């Protein structure tokens, strides 16, 4: 009997030890142990990102995000693209731009054509993305890419259904100049789409004339695919098909209205559903591979937030990618960002006071940082911590945020903290000022 009691006691002790061992740490101790300084300006030292390597080794997709109009966003993109190419076999960099814009930028990446680069960034082709730091990002990626073997070279792709500036018009003019043996019948159909793109807004509802021109070109590509492949090339034909499909879909998606994201639920969900379909199409076309996606803030959240379902949540719900996506959320301390409406820099921050207090208590409040949220004993795997989300996500409508379900790591698995964000220099500012004169 005593022996039986002893065995039961030992079992109870073992269970108790196991429970205590696996109990989550408090958030202050956890972030102190699971964070590193993020050396954005030191591209020769990327050991800081070793912090996430074990967490992403079995993933197919790594995502980072941004609030637009901030210089450091380009630094984040180069830091991650550079590291992921060297340590994770990254092949495809998916940007928040239209497919035409991405195709043109990728041509620069593969060729180093400086005139093309200037046109993309300084002549309105890239719209809101036409800023000095993004241009420098493209140059650095070209230098990284140019001496690599073909199978290691990075490919840039524009994932978004939304188009930028003069990208469609420029793209069609560009392929006409690039491929000078397009047969008359095919060229006529391309010219009809080009003409409509010059006459109508690039996003929003299409006229019946524009939609017919798109459908006629799509039909002709389907019926005469061999002619198009011979006149252009197979990859360019795929590019053309995706661009035409996006032009049709922007008519269905509509345009964003003034007001918060929650007031534009229908637009954002329709847009990101199409972007998810674009991702699947791209993934199938290239036969898999590894992808780095960089997008605006909530787009990379893997769970519906504040009643809106974004790109990351669509990907996460796909059984093919359910456990293959890793999202990293970016928060900014007090600084400035460029305001496209005011054509000027404004004071800006997105970090919550709760997270600032946590960082201070952990004695890691200074500098840029990366924090992994999904390691062992993480409290962020147990509940939703407001502190990890943007100030706007949490406090724009507190009741709505409280309805968010799950735990923090259902939305994203790591966090970037940027100290003293600085505003971009936007090339489009001069174009707009000239139009107002």
Written account of the structure:
With 437 residues, this protein is an alpha/beta fold. The relative contact order is 0.16. The chain is built from 18 helices and ten strands. It has helices spanning 2-22, 27-33, 50-56, 72-87, 99-111, 114-122, 132-145, 167-178, 184-199, 208-223, 225-231, 234-253, 265-286, 311-317, 353-361, 391-395, 398-402, 428-436, and strands spanning 35-37, 61-66, 92-98, 155-160, 291-296, 325-332, 335-339, 344-348, 369-372, 414-418. The chain has two domains: 43-78 and 296-437, EreA/ChaN-like  fold; 91-289, no CATH class. Keywords: Membrane, Transmembrane, Transmembrane helix. The chain crosses the membrane at residues 6-23.
- Spans with pLDDT under 50 lasting ≥5 residues? 14-21
Backbone CA Rg: 24 Å
Number of strands: 10
* Total number of helices: 18
Task: Name the helix and strand elements from N-terminus to C-terminus, one letter apiece.
Answer: HHEHEHEHHHEHHHHHHEHEEEHEHHEH
Secondary structural class: alpha/beta
Average pLDDT value? 92
| Percent of residues in β-strands | 5-15%
What spatial order of strands do you see in the largest sheet? 1-9-10-6-2-5-3-4
Global morphology: globular
GO biological process, one term: response to antibiotic
Organism: Clostridium senegalense
Transmembrane segments: 6-23
Protein name: Erythromycin esterase family protein
